[in-house]
Inverse folding.
């Protein structure tokens, strides 16, 4: 299934007013399990740094929800959010101007080509690398763009059932993915090849998270893929499933998993 058309439709609905977009971000933060894991790591990184004038790269910013969240932690942080989708970048720049977040700038960039040597204290890549074939080139560019001691934080599917692929004969649930998921040692090796010296990786989306993902993402996307009329029923669907998803997300984010369909990776220059 192609996910981008559904994402575009959602964007058109929630881009109508700044208030709706803020609501959209808030709902994504609650519903998407990866956000729970990413926010947890960002809080750890941000501890003691909110008064420092730091530079951050959101590498593959999508809707811009992570840039929004980080820009609210400290007005002293300058955030550059890049993406290949021109319309999405334009919408995001308009929104952030409307809410007067002057420490944020969105730009159209291809991560395979983009490099800004020794510029950033932190780089964030959330559900991006599974879309890019030339992943080592991207890791090299981000490594070059980080300052010494800078950190890259990655969230991406694993090869333990990421993209809902569990057998050799299956294909990714999301057709825009160029890989079904990373082996945990594979991504560590690729980051090492790109120049990163210290790398930590752990599994996310254990059993609670996998159930939550199906309830909160897979089933609604499948139904929306068949008919946009399902948008009318979405509020009722989430009214029933949302409390269960919140509990499952909470459990997953506070559990150490021996395996999982997602990976959270940190790498330092």
């Amino acid at each position: 299934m192609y996910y981008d058309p559904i994402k575009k439709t959602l964007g058109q609905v929630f881009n109508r007013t700044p208030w709706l977009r803020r609501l959209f971000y808030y709902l994504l933060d609650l519903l998407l399990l990866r956000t729970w894991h990413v926010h947890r790591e960002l809080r750890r990184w941000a501890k003691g740094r909110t008064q420092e004038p730091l530079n951050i790269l959101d590498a593959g910013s999508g809707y811009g929800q992570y840039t929004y969240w980080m820009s609210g932690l400290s007005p002293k942080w300058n955030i550059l959010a890049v993406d290949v989708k021109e319309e999405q970048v334009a919408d995001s720049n308009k929104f952030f101007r409307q809410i007067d977040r002057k420490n944020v700038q969105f730009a159209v960039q291809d991560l395979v080509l983009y490099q800004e040597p020794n510029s950033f204290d932190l780089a964030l890549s959330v559900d991006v690398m599974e879309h890019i074939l030339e992943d080592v080139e991207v890791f090299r560019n981000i490594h070059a763009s980080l300052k010494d001691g800078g950190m890259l934080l990655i969230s991406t599917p694993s090869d333990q059932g990421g993209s809902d692929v569990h057998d050799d004969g299956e294909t990714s649930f999301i057709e825009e993915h160029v890989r079904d998921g990373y082996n945990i040692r594979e991504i560590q090796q690729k980051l090492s090849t790109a120049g990163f010296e210290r790398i930590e990786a752990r599994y996310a989306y254990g059993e609670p998270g996998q159930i939550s993902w199906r309830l909160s993402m897979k089933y609604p996307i499948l139904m929306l893929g068949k008919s946009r009329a399902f948008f009318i029923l979405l509020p009722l669907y989430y009214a029933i499933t949302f409390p269960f998803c919140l509990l499952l997300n909470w459990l997953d984010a506070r559990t150490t998993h021996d395996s999982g369909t997602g990976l959270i990776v940190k790498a330092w220059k």
In short: The CA atoms of residues 209 and 252 lie 5 Å apart. The mean pLDDT is 89. DSSP finds nine helices and seven strands in the chain.
